């Protein structure tokens, strides 16, 4: 269990990092939506390794294949199956995994839970697992575009290690402008600084973490369910299900906990026909339901666990060993996490949009 | 939709804050567990309003009734229904709600989503909704106690506004010792400071927020599913579904994003028969699966939206008005959020424990 | 698990037959629907025991209470909780249940599965458990009436024991006309015959079974999902989940298996703007999806297991005993099964209607 | 929606009959089970077309590929993906489908529901869709074999058209002995008669239906949940979700509705340590829960809709036309339905077995 997401637009991802392929089946894609596989490929290209010297040198073309559910560029209403074959196996890189519990990896917990040791060590715990999510989200985005043409979802790197790029204002950010930066930070000066931090860590075989900010713009009012399936709760789950995520904030987030109520409340005002708020510390969600303002999230990612430095650990037969990782891995997950975060936000929004169709008599 | 939680130990909460009653139905409680309703009542007493001058003066005895599923103190395996009648309605307090969108409340979003205006204004968006969760968790805790007698789940207030109580070490904390403090902070000095911050805000009709830390101790290795239902992802959803929560961190959390990988990795060591880690920046979860170390969470809550100060807002017919709240409300949600956080953690752990029973051939 | 039904209009029933109360929580009722509790009461009155000498003499007023989700006769969109208190306990009737496995009852299986012996013997296995279903269906019907005003769902007794009332044509049947008959068969002559069969069995302390036919008229084209959630599959599950049901047929049913394909196919014709079929052996469903013709089901019910005749059995300590039932029970479940079958059909249709809202781009 | 089955052993089937491939993803297979793909292939060989002159001459090798979830013959606990490529497309056979609503097929309902016309006409409504189910069941059977080595599930053809093979006793039936018959009826004389009925119909381009009986032997006591998820209810849904099924009976079935209660009750007796029943009209299930006796089901299938005879119908532009099917299709679905019925029974039993693990304190 655990490889499924969504109540109506329901996806199941599959595939081991070093097996035959990784992919996804989508059950519940509305029929009649026009679907371009080129668009799916473009998302995967934003996610794939080897895009720059800041990411792992593992080379995977990550070419998408569609096995079912789409005919002549239109969704049939039946399950859509998308597949990416794994190509760049370097078996020798992973042989060591058969013998060691890598620190802060899933090797020990996977073995303990399942009683088996997959050749990739940590089983499904791999950034490669997110290919299925991103592919599904690239379909979801096309569905949303046909139902909610104004909706925009974009994320950017807002911190690398302890360097933060703060932006009160992001009305002119876009996915295209963000992607101009190797590190996916929309500010050129900050990008440079972030890149140098990553390069410095990489040069020593070390790794760094950081933070992303994600904005969901022009979501309709009314998405999210009170009680357990609040919109921010489902977004939190979605983001905390990404590999390496450690923190989640919505709206004012942690900083908001340090304000008085009189400072934190968002006052309602009329703006033509719309009800809006002067400030947006709520982050676009009130009582678990979207209010039409920007939905703003911040997600923190830890430094990548795989480092090219010697570390003490235990072998699988529980002897103390010294261990140095040999695989090719990202020194910083943040740039590639941008499309993953956008993907999860897209899946949450579409599912809640479809759930909301029957929420009232119309 | 949205009032259900859990895959196997599945609960459905119900009830409007100012209606007849609030409660919960539990489907999936293992038969044969001994269940004490006094224990449920004790949890509700920790949650209920009117416990001290730091919380709302709304007086609700919150007396639990059991309508089904338990006979002679034993769970039958059939749905358990628990009910608390609402008593302290002050209708006049809520009449104003029929006319105004309270700032940072769910009044506007509820009306927009459902097209109806419940007399409580924000419908299910109320701290009172959590009674069902806490009652269900008090059952879940008894089930867990019979399956995993070593397990402990406890939370405490670790920050009020910008005052933080930091504790590297909490091996001697317990629910009993925490409850000795009015503000549910286990440190006497810090408690005093927190109380004075809350009193000061209350005296001006204002409110404050803060942070909780929650520790899940002695959870078995192997809880949590890779990919979407990672243990921290389900915990994040559970916590972010609580009213007023704004941030979620696991293990090193936000601070961990500022470290190098070489500083952040938890090294494995042998401790008798057990595999343990020297540090615990992972917060007891690796690859989404518990590793046997303390599971440590931090949750931030915003300052309560209801303040006894005049605020500008819109009436439901969209005219600008000045509005001062008349209801009785907490100046700080943190002390009462402690049992809510413990409740959600308990529900997540039991559900994952039951899910895990079939995860491998035994 | 197992007390929940529906994906979107999701109900959870609860309550032991001889406990405090029985009832249901509905999560997912569309907000804004007008709901009359009198209508719910009227359904329960059709289901309740003691309606005539053909049913059990257990007297239960079955008075409905609504605890949440409805205000001023309108659904709020939050969970609707409906409750009926149990009143006519005759504890002595059930004391014997503590000691015996009643033949063809759930006493033995319940004890084996759960390891506990509820005072009602078979736990949730009781016709009384259906109160929650019927109450939920009476809400569902009102929702459907506001969304699909033409839809009609009605059932009648089409066989008692080996006496069959065959009706090729039932365009003039209605719930009102069917209810004119004590035995709920719309044909006066057949009713008499059925009643005499039941009376004869009852006079000897014996019981009889029979068959119901159910018609769902004016369902929209397009309900039902291909593959697992075919409309007839969900209807089959719904009907076979009713106590005492033994068989399910759709359309031509068992008789249809004896025809040639050339006899069985329903030929399409044009009828004004509509596509219709000349015959309806498909029973209104093709490929799992409704085609707009009458959906016709037949459900068989076994003779009631409780008979007032001595039977051999085993005591719970596994000694051979002779046993004669003392409780008051129906000699034939069929008349009271009519509203239960209508209830299940109503729940299936509404849930599929709501599921279908997102099935295509509109 | 609708392509998923199971709560814990959860499968999602995918693939259009005439697209790239058909297959299944299984989420929730217990780790550590030994899995042989040869066994999966053997099941598919029993299901595939072209086995004899009684079935369609469409030749599909139906070669299974495993893309994920199994390594070195052992289930990893991650999703298992199984794929069969489609090969024997005869596009010209299906071109006509673009233009006509075939009688009693899903062409009209599919178009009406989804607003699109897949090249296979009826979309997922195809016997080929069952490949995914059968492949998943072949995995499930291996899991069950390692958990419940005594369990047996086998089905046979018990009627073709109006010819019935009645068998009070089937203690010596087995899958192997049944498969000796071309028509999968374990009685040689009856087989001959059935074959001649099918041949006669085929020679005229017509088709016939019939009935299957399925026996689940040595299921443990306690499978099935009271109320909605009764074991017979889930079996009914499973069977009625198969293409062309029209009726479902459990135990005494329709015949049982014609008996008195005094004839129908199964009396309990002691058999060594076991509690058993003298008769088994209950069909191995009481109160929705298995009692350890043989679970006996009968499923009726209509005559195949595709016949090689001219029929009147409507074109998709709603003109009256005469239509004669050109594709290659089975004159009788029964022989190939045997493994499909066994597959669905296997999926239901495993899922309920896994659900039952947490049903009580152990």
Structure description:
- The structure is a homotetramer of 362-residue chains.
- Chain A has 362 residues and is an alpha+beta fold.
- Helix content of chain A is 29%, strand content 23%.
- Chain A has 10 helices and 19 strands.
- In chain A, the strands form 6 sheets. A 5-stranded antiparallel sheet of chain A has the order 1-2-3-7-4, covered by helices on one side.
- Chain A is globular, with a radius of gyration of 21 Å.
- The mean pLDDT of chain A is 93.
- At the A-C interface, α4 of A face α4 of C.
Read across the widest sheet of chain A, the strand sequence of neighbours is 1-2-3-7-4
Most extensive chain interface and residues per partner: A-B, 111 and 111 residues
Strand-pairing-aware structural class of chain A: alpha+beta
Give the beta-strand count of chain A: 19
Beta-strand percentage range of chain A = 15-25%
What oligomeric state best describes the polypeptide chains here?
homotetramer
Shape of chain A: globular
Largest sheet geometry of chain A: 5 strands, antiparallel
Give the tags.
five-stranded antiparallel sheet, 362 residues, homotetramer, 19 strands, alpha+beta
Task: Chart the SSEs and their pairings.
The structure is a homotetramer of 362-residue chains.
Chain A (H helix, E strand, L loop, with lengths): L3 E2 L4 E5 L6 E7 L9 H11 L16 E5 L1 E2 L2 E2 L4 E6 L5 H5 L4 E2 L5 H8 L15 H18 L4 E9 L2 E2 L10 H5 L8 H16 L6 E8 L13 H10 L4 E6 L2 H4 L4 H4 L3 E4 L2 E4 L7 E2 L2 E2 L4 E7 L9 E5 L4 E4 L10 H23 L6
Antiparallel strand pairs in A: 1-2, 2-3, 3-7, 4-7, 5-6, 8-18, 9-10, 9-11, 11-17, 12-17, 13-14, 15-16, 18-19
Helix pairs in contact in A: 1-4, 1-10, 4-10, 7-10
């Amino acid at each position: 269990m655990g490889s499924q997401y969504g109540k109506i637009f329901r996806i199941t991802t599959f595939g081991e990092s070093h097996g035959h392929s990784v992919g996804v089946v989508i059950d519940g894609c509305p029929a009649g939506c026009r679907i371009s596989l080129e668009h799916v490929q473009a998302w995967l290209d934003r996610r794939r390794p080897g895009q720059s010297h800041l990411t792992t040198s593992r080379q995977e073309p990550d070419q998408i294949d569609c096995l079912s559910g789409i005919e002549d560029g239109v969704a049939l209403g039946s399950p859509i199956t998308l597949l990416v074959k794994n190509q760049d196996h370097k078996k020798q890189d992973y042989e060591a995994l058969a013998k060691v519990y890598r620190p802060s990896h899933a090797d020990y917990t996977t073995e303990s839970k399942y009683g088996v040791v997959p050749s990739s060590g940590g089983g499904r715990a791999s950034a490669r697992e997110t290919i299925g999510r991103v592919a599904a989200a690239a379909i979801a985005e096309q569905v949303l575009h046909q139902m909610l043409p104004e909706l925009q979802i974009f994320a950017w790197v807002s911190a690398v290690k302890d360097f933060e790029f703060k932006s009160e204002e992001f009305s002119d950010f876009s996915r295209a402008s963000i992607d101009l930066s190797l590190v996916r930070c929309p500010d050129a000066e900050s990008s440079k600084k972030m890149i140098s931090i990553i390069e410095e860590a990489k040069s020593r075989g070390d790794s760094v973490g950081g933070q992303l900010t994600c904005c969901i713009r022009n979501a309709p009012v009314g998405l999210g369910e009170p009680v357990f399936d609040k919109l921010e709760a489902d977004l939190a789950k979605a983001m905390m299900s990404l590999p390496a995520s450690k923190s989640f904030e919505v709206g004012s987030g942690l900083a908001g906990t340090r304000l008085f109520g009189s400072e934190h409340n968002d006052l309602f005002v009329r703006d033509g026909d719309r009800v809006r708020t002067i400030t947006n510390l709520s982050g676009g969600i009130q009582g678990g339901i979207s209010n039409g303002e920007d939905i703003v999230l911040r997600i923190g990612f830890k430094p990548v666990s795989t480092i090219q430095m010697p570390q003490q650990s235990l072998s699988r037969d529980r002897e103390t060993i010294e261990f140095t990782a040999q695989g090719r891995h990202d020194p910083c997950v943040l740039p590639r996490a941008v499309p993953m975060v956008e993907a999860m936000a897209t899946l949450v929004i579409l599912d809640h949009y479809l759930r909301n169709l029957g929420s009232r008599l119309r």
